[in-house]
Specification:
Elements (H helix, E strand, L loop, with lengths): L31 H7 L12 H10 L10 H7 L5 H12 L10 H13 L8 H5 L7 H12 L10 H14 L3 H9 L5 H10 L1
Helix pairs in contact: 8-9, 9-10
Length: 201
């Protein structure tokens, strides 16, 4: 199946009216050479990876094997994507062998067993665990645990009290969702749940 479009939506710090406003979110400096690579779409706004973007990146990657520097890749890709975006799109969706789509019960069982029986707490050996799940990468496995499998996560709708905590957390921590989860919610709300609530409220 085709990889899902990578849509990025970023809000300004203003929360008034619940409006989502596009901003530059690439996490990169405004170095002129990098901005020239990233193109006008990197200046802000909502955008996604098109079929042509994916095909071009796949073609470019035929020249590179496990690059440590993705600036040349983004430059050669030439379609307004940052080095970070090219790296994430390739490793999460386009790289041959990466498994996409629905998680199977036996995969979930392996993740739960590995995390809950580990002597390392909190568990961080996601890349090592990926060796037991062919086609999955560490980032996918961590997200699966944090957002779906962790039994301590509260999946109930946010209450008014939760929203007040979230607002306070955003004032103190900005968009550091993991930190907000730990400090304000005692890690009982996933970072993904917190982030989605902030942008939808």
């Amino acid at each position: 199946s085709n990889p899902p479009p990578a849509v990025y939506i970023v809000s300004s710090t203003a929360r008034g009216g619940g409006m989502v406003r596009p901003m530059n979110h690439n996490g990169m400096s405004h170095d002129p050479s990098l901005m020239s690579i990233m193109g006008p779409r990197a200046q802000g706004g909502v955008y996604s990876w098109s079929k042509e973007d994916d095909e071009r990146l796949t073609e470019v990657m035929k020249k590179y094997r496990n690059p440590k520097d993705w600036v040349p890749v983004a430059r050669e890709h030439g379609r307004g994507k940052s080095p970070k975006e090219c790296h994430e799109r390739w490793n999460r969706y386009l790289k041959p062998g990466v498994r996409k789509g629905q998680w199977q019960d036996h995969e979930d069982a392996i993740v739960v067993e590995a995390v809950t029986t580990s002597t390392e707490q909190p568990f961080t050996r996601w890349s090592d665990l990926a060796q037991r799940l062919p086609g999955r990468v560490g980032k996918q496995i961590r997200d699966r645990w944090v957002n779906h499998l962790n039994p301590h996560i509260n999946h109930m709708p946010f209450t008014r009290e939760d929203d007040l905590l979230l607002f306070r957390g955003h004032e103190e921590c900005g968009k550091r969702w993991v930190e907000i989860s730990a400090k304000l919610f005692d890690s009982t709300r996933s970072e993904n749940h917190i982030k989605n609530r902030w942008y939808s409220a």
